[in-house]
Fold this protein.
Amino acid sequence: MDTIASLFSFITTPVSWVIVQFHTVYGAIFGPDTGWAWGLSIVSLVILIRICLIPLFVKQIKATRAMQTLQPEMKKIQERYKNDKQRQSEEMMKLYKESGTNPLSSCLPILAQSPFFFALYHVLNGIASGQTIGVINQPLLESARKAHIFGAPLAAKFKDSADTIHALGASVVDVRVVTVVMIVLMSASQFYTQRQLMTKNVDTTVKTPFMQQQKMLMYVFPIMFAVFGINFPVGVLVYWLTTNVWTMGQQMYVIHNNPTPGSKAQAAYLERLGKHVTQHGKVRRRSEKTIIKAIVTKGRDRNEFERKFITGLSKAGLAAQADGSVVRSEGQTVVEAEDGTTTTTATATAARRQQPKRQTKAQRQSGPKQAGEAEPAISLAKADEPQDAKPAAANQRSQPGAGTRSKAQSGQRKGGPQRPKSPSKK
């Protein structure tokens, strides 16, 4: 380990300088020889490093999203070469190369902070051996050797002998208890961070070698931290515990606000977003507009959760636009089919054209009626008329040609000689 750490000695001086600057600030508050001053200096170093690594973390997220866009192609390759694992791996690597993505991009933050880790280990190892290193001179060295965190010196290790621990002014029990607790917390935080990534933020519809790799790392990394943790000084354990807690919080933020498409986290996020949009009728933040824009752009390639989100908006009388905004559509409703296609139909608020009811044969022969009670009123009026007025009224109501039609029906000719009736055939 000393050989590996010496390779990063070029960064030892900057790391030691940063620790000394933070120690100057915290020493004025808690005292220069206290564990709080030196411990908080290490924690502040971690926070500063992780803030500097945020652009790299954003790049990691973009690379992960690029991997997600390749999921349909990966699925096709799996189905095509399901009986040939070697050919399947070759086609996967070819796809990564053509798209410019890297399945190992999730390890970038760990690789980037490795030089700082080895430099800090080299600094604390120098403090434990009583050697000045970097900008840490002899007075600062003596002050760091006196600093204890919960009774354990910063430079003490789990495997140190009793004589070495007593030389640092501590007891073996205190050092063993503190180091074991910190190793357990460090491994547990690492396992939880990787587990929430696998269970909540991974598209489970496609099984890829990348997912198998992440699942393997979920169990390998905690075991590695537990094995190597017994050789780390307490100060290095403080460093790794702090960076694991930072990573866990950062991962929770990403899962909550920018989940992976097709994951359980996306289902929960779109459910929350749908409730807010239907309640307020608008989108709050730019990140939400970006996600809605990506969903609209997908079209037929939307997953189950995205189709459910679009359908929920349409039922509420809202429509997602191509720019990520949401507008209220009072005259139209977008209905999405199972294959991702959308159709536009009239809403309940629009005026619907009603088809007339079909009449029966008796209703058509009787003619149109004004109202349900019109016919009985006419019959009563006829009953009140005098008897002598009926023939006149009947003559007035008679239409020309009515008698002619009756005669023609009885066999009589119009305006000509009468045709004799033929004898009936019996």
About this structure: The first strand starts at residue 148 and ends at 149.
